[in-house]
Design a protein that fits this description.
The structure is a homodimer.
Chain A (H helix, E strand, L loop, with lengths): L4 E7 L3 H12 L1 H8 L2 E8 L3 H7 L5 E2 L3 H4 L6 E4 L7 H10 L3 E4 L2 H17 L4 E2 L10 H8 L5 E7 L2 H12 L5 H11 L7 H4 L2 H15 L9 E2 L7 H10 L1 E13 L2 E12 L11 E8 L3 E8 L3 H17 L18 E2 L6 E11 L4 H11 L4 E8 L4 E8 L2 E2 H13 L3 E10 L3
Parallel strand pairs in A: 1-2, 1-4, 2-3, 4-5, 5-6, 8-10, 10-13, 10-18
Antiparallel strand pairs in A: 7-9, 7-11, 9-10, 11-12, 14-16, 14-17, 14-18, 15-16
Helix pairs in contact in A: 1-13, 5-6, 6-11, 8-9, 14-15
């Protein structure tokens, strides 16, 4: 008995696209058993067909997107080109033809999800994006189905493998600088030649807008989100963090304050050593969430790489294989996202870690203490350590304090001649 | 515009049933937004309608299962009675009427899943059971969809909250006995009045047969599985475990050796302190798995309780809300489970921890060492500790050794007059 076919078209054949092809080969029988359908790659659009044909002579490469868009047998397209353009146009054209879309593209969704969801809805299609956040971890469908009985109160994510790998190595080999770990990571293939998107936190910020949509049903753009990267994390900060009982992680954070007010931000955070997120090491990702029914839960796994990401793409194909046709059958699509206020970073309260280089002279501590006093900042820990004959390092952990007070204090500290530099400012804790 | 209804019948209204009702109330609007359907409880079967009517006068209690079975408007039944009977008959009758079934009943599935899946298939229905394993953690659907592109190589689960709570408390308060922690747990509601199912490992063994089905597509019964409980774990063992760098956890283990051979077993295990499972504390559950594409992944959350379990039941209702009708639409049902050989425990190899009470006299260690030598068991660690004037405690950790060699050695050790007792035998490590 021949099974009904699910014919797919691939846009792109890079590392993820090749992973999709490999898994569809190796798992062909088990996927047929699972879905009662035969999944077949009908066409693969790449720019340079010639180059690919040499390596994969048996694969159906095409040199024009139209060969996929205009093929009515292709019901599903998989967009694994990455980047904003031409991916956006190809996805929109596919949706307009009623094709289901699977995409692994966090930048595309981070920037244009509202428009894409609207197009999908208009044309009774659907768009799936499990692979866009957390690689092989089934985080999107867990929010959309597994935890869908819950009001999500908060989530905290380690969503970038490159920066988590770098922070882990810095923590394991105390004293190694970010620059030296990064160059090691690049030579091992754990970091891109141009790592700006990762290091700056922008990659995580895109992913946060996607998680905010599925967890809170809200529509926020990257410009609504305060994000910072790990550029200024120093090996000294890692060492002090451990001394105080923390690991430094680059966290994406989402919290519901009330029906219309949310905290959404990305920055390095000192995570208490016993929190499950503190033990997420190397290139692994994780999302720790709290729902009103399920309580605390965490999902953990590989956030990138050819096969983990392709594994997520194929999980979307399995959902599509079970989808019916016509209005109401789109199980992934949601369009009732609300525009809401994101609380300004200045209005938030948190604990802070600061590391200052100061002149080691009489009266300096008094002047610094006065700045904190003026700004109603109370100190929890303080360590002063001699650097050389005339300078010292001063490390401070505060109690909870409004961000704007701390920002004022930092401006004032920088004006003191005795403060040579404010080396690091890192937020502490998950509350 | 009124939405199409999804009318459900409840069998049972205990702690999970009440949780389902509460969440359907509180999340009514968001579930409608998510599914474009209105989910309504049409009838609730309980034995003693009178008693419930007083507390919940507005709810549609019925005193006969037929009021649900014979109501053609009810398309979905939720079985939350627990236990084998009459749950089994009610589920079969429901499937025969073509109703979708959602069940939280690990004993029912552990014993009868093949028969139930067959009935569902015969009558073009489907049976969902996210709540039967791991409470609120979306572990079943992760195996069925999220990780479905993978050959699962192994999984290790902490699947019983009561025993994990007890082991955690014993570890945190070194020296407290199992009996005393258990009685505390009972008074706090973390353990049943009769905790036999939990303590003996039987509860975990039922759950393991269910995970084996969804992860490996194999049909094994509880009688195929070697299972042990935590009855003989002593506070001394917990203390030594920590000293050697381990936490003791009651683990369900599944490993694929080759296409037709599997390891499936439940027993207390010394888990290396840095493994993610070692930090799963209190009543939390977790499943750590390795897939050929996704690599290592872990899901973590609350494994029991009214709302976490109800949250899982409702996630199944969401899937059902999106299901089409007729043959081929059943997205959860799989019937191609193979009967396979489960490797006998005697044929497995592992490391062992042993704790002996011995006479503290000249030559005893030589005799004990001879027993290990005869059985080709090589020792990794050994601690002898004086107990009183004439006896001592001897703690041993071995290298990897076949189970049957260790079983021989234990028989021979017990025959030595110098060995007063073999207090504990605990397997070490996850390999």
């Amino acid at each position: 008995m021949s099974l009904p076919m699910l014919r797919i078209g691939l846009f792109g054949f890079g590392t993820v696209g090749q992973g999709v092809w490999k898994i569809l080969q190796s798992q062909s029988q088990s996927l047929q058993n699972r879905t009662s359908r035969e999944i077949q790659i009908e066409a693969i659009y790449v720019r340079d067909v010639g180059r690919y044909k040499i390596q994969y002579p048996e694969l159906p490469f095409v040199n024009s997107p139209d060969a996929i868009l205009n093929n009515p047998d292709i019901g599903v397209v998989v967009e694994v080109m990455g980047g904003e353009n031409p991916a956006k146009e190809l996805v929109i054209q596919s949706l307009r033809k009623g094709k289901r879309v699977v995409t692994a593209n966090k930048e595309l969704l981070g920037k244009h999800k509202s428009e894409l969801f609207h197009e999908a809805s208009l044309h009774h299609s659907d768009i799936y994006f499990e692979a866009a956040v957390g690689g092989g971890i089934p985080i999107i469908r867990s929010f959309k189905v597994g935890f869908s009985a819950n009001s999500i109160q908060s989530f905290f994510g380690i969503l970038n493998g490159t920066t988590n790998y770098i922070l882990t190595k810095m923590s394991e080999t105390e004293g190694q600088s970010l620059a030296s770990v990064l160059s090691e990571a690049q030579s091992l293939g754990f970091a891109e030649a141009d790592p700006t998107m990762d290091i700056s936190g922008a990659d995580v910020a895109y992913k946060l807008t996607i998680l905010a949509a599925v967890a809170f049903k809200i529509d926020v753009g990257i410009s609504d989100i305060h994000f910072e990267g790990i550029e200024s994390i120093d090996s000294d900060d890692i060492a002090y963090a451990r001394q105080f009982g923390y690991e430094i992680k680059l966290l994406a954070m989402g919290k519901q304050l009330d029906a219309n007010s949310f905290v959404l931000k990305v920055h390095p955070t000192m995570v208490p050593i016993h929190h499950p997120l503190a033990s997420v090491r190397d290139e692994f990702n994780a999302v720790f969430l709290t729902g009103d029914s399920v309580g605390e839960a965490m999902l953990y796994g590989k956030g990138a790489g050819s096969l983990p990401t392709a594994s997520a793409v194929i999980s979307d194909l399995i959902d599509i294989a079970f989808e019916g046709q016509g209005p109401g059958s789109a199980r992934n699509l949601e369009t009732n996202y609300r525009k809401v206020a994101v609380e300004k970073i200045e209005d938030q309260e948190t604990r802070f870690y600061l590391r200052l280089n100061i002149q080691d002279i009489f009266g300096v501590l008094e002047k610094i203490a006065a700045v904190f006093g003026t700004n109603h900042i109370s100190l929890a820990n303080l360590i002063q350590k001699e650097r050389d004959e005339s300078t010292a390092q001063l490390v401070i952990v505060t109690h909870k304090v409004p961000e704007k007070n701390m920002q004022n204090a930092i401006v004032q500290l920088k004006q003191l001649v005795e403060v040579l530099s404010v080396q690091s400012v890192i937020r502490v804790g998950l509350d």
